[in-house]
């Protein structure tokens, strides 16, 4: 399952260099992942009822093109691979000209809500990923 989220760069997201601050891109990616979970009917409360929370453990991001105030951006999120307790998502941020502004690989882990330790990814989340080749 692949999702797209459209946003507009706000004045508060601009740094002293006149472009989107690097930390804001991580926030944009988080918004994209939340959109993805919601599209898969796995909102936070649903995951919690399943006894699991998702924790981001690694983000590898490439900043490709600067973005400015008022620009319309699209955050594309799609599943890449699934392990036993962790999974990988690919995310990309495009501007209105369909130019790649940033791309990232995000690794998350399924965490048991009670023990606060990793646990197998629940089937409800696993089904949103492509079948292994």
From TrEMBL:
One of its GO terms (molecular function) is fatty acyl-CoA hydrolase activity. Signal peptide: none annotated. InterPro entries: 4-hydroxybenzoyl-CoA_TE (IPR050563), HotDog_dom_sf (IPR029069), YbgC/YbaW (IPR006684). It comes from the Bacteria. Keywords: Hydrolase. Gene3D superfamilies: Hotdog Thioesterase. Belongs to the 4-hydroxybenzoyl-CoA thioesterase family. This is Acyl-CoA thioesterase.
């Amino acid at each position: 399952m692949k999702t797209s989220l459209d946003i507009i760069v706000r004045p508060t997201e601009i740094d002293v260099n006149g472009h989107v601050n690097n930390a804001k891109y991580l926030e944009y990616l988080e918004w994209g992942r939340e959109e993805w979970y919601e599209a898969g009917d796995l909102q936070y409360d649903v995951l919690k009822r399943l006894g699991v929370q998702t924790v981001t453990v690694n983000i590898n991001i490439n900043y490709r093109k600067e973005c400015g105030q008022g620009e319309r951006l699209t955050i594309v999120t799609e599943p890449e691979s699934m392990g036993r307790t962790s999974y990988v998502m690919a995310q990309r941020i495009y501007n209105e000209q369909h130019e790649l502004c940033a791309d990232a690989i995000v690794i998350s882990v399924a965490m048991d809500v009670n023990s606060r330790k990793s646990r197998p990814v629940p089937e409800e989340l696993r089904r949103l990923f492509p079948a292994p080749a």
